[in-house]
Amino acid sequence: MKTKWFKDAFIYQIYPRSFCDGNGDGIGDIRGIISKLDYLKDLGINAVWLSPCYKSPNDDNGYDISDYRDIMEEFGTLDDWKEMVKGMHDRGIKLIMDLVVNHTSDEHAWFVESKKSTDNPYRDYYFWKKGRGKDGKKPPNNWISRFGGSAWTYDENTDEFYLHLFSKKQPDLNWDNPKVREEVKGIVKYWLDLGADGFRCDVITYISKVEGLPDGKLGGDNMFTHGPNIHKYLQELYTDVLSKYDCMTVGEAAGVTTDQAKLYTGNGRGELDTVFQFEHVEVNTFAQIVPRKVKLNRIKEVLSKWQTELFGNGWNSLYLENHDQPRCVSRYINDNVDGDDFLRKQSAKMLMTMMYFQQGTPYVYQGQEIGMTNIEFHSEEEHVDVLSKTVFRLVKKYAPFLKGYAMRALAIRSRDNARTPMQWNAEKNAGFSDGLPWYRVNPNYTTINTEEALKDPDSVLNFLKKIIEIRKGNETIRDGRYIDIQKDSKDLFAYRREAEVETLEIICNYKNKEVNYRADAKLIGKGAKIELILSNYQNIAYDQAEYRDFILKPYECRVYSIKK
Ligand code: NOJ
After folding, report:
1. pLDDT in tens, 194-234
2. Does the annotation count 273 as an active-site position?
């Protein structure tokens, strides 16, 4: 039943809360998405990954689900959802839902039951344990929540702790319980039968924990990441449900190595189609929040490694942004490009070129197509994300002198950067909502917005459209071998994609300065047909565009097609 359409997909991620508000309550919703389907079709993308839209008390903006089979009231109804899927399918767009099954909300009926007594039938849906220490009030082990602090919360009612690798309102499901696995299969089947085309599997590498939940290294990481039964559980889900549908899966896989990724996505293993690895988005941060200086060499090293190692046996996801990552122009480009609109656009286009000519399935996150930037933070109150709030709470409790540092670090790294409302036009609230938006609109919406970008032939959006167009049906991009050609350059990220009839040469100047490029005489000498197929400097004169030694302007990128 399954085909490999994910290899030809170009996926647009929607974070529904911030995308478009259809009813004026300040919160993005499904009717808002429906109103933008023509916009999405026009971009050329052929699939949407929709962040969670299920019922949720919104401790973590929908990543805490209280009913897997229904839609969050703020977002609309199941009928709206059905209309949205139909609208997508009518336009040749597939829908990837977010599958958040490492944990539920603490308000999910299973957890409400589970809390009631130690012999409740739902008790084993979650992890409950007695505390340590004389009074039993110390957490059962040393595991640290991904949002900071112990991964355990004490519950007075039964005098036990429950496990939550994220906030205390996100208790972890116990996948070792076969009933839990059956429930998950039921949920997956439910949405596929309703018309979904696949799933992005949230923190899927955490679903199998080491038996007995012992202390581990690094806050327990090695006891719950890629745990003992992970491959068995994924294969079971695949065999029993996923293999029967023409769907795709992409697993969120923090900390995954290339060897592990081959196991998750390798041909014929029947687990996932592709994974999101994190190495390139962690080059400038440590432990999710501590900023580090970005080094081009490191980015090249990481991306080239993923390209070469997964070639022929696995499949990459190509992304620079999502709802958890800061905006890429602000993040990867050191210069204050925000102040220079031309360079902001050039660097946004260069980053797309660097990423989207690699092998794998590309993702573009809402707003990335217009080069949206991080937002400025002036006070602690402007941080609304549960992760940032936890950081401030812990700093206040244990190290108040670090408050200034936390403000600076979060300004760069905070997930709120990616969650500011989508900028549609230069009118009220950037055209996102008629009401008061749930979160701050970036003041630069007057210049950075889709209406402007659609009109401007030189916009990031129109550049992305060209890339999407070039990728369509291009076998060199889909199947060609990746070759890093400027390993030692401190300024350039350049690579080739080699296939039978064509070679693509992708050259990106990563710096805000002119840089020399040395063309490969062997390629020119053979009398090959060399054509410039993409460039972010519109006014390149033809002779400058020829493939020979040349000077690249700040953030210039070029793609040459070379045919024998
Ligand atoms: C990963 C999601 O992308 C993130 O937004 C969320 O907070 C955690 N998983 C917990 O579900």
Report:
1. 999 999 999 999 999 999 999 999 899 999 999 999 999 99
2. no
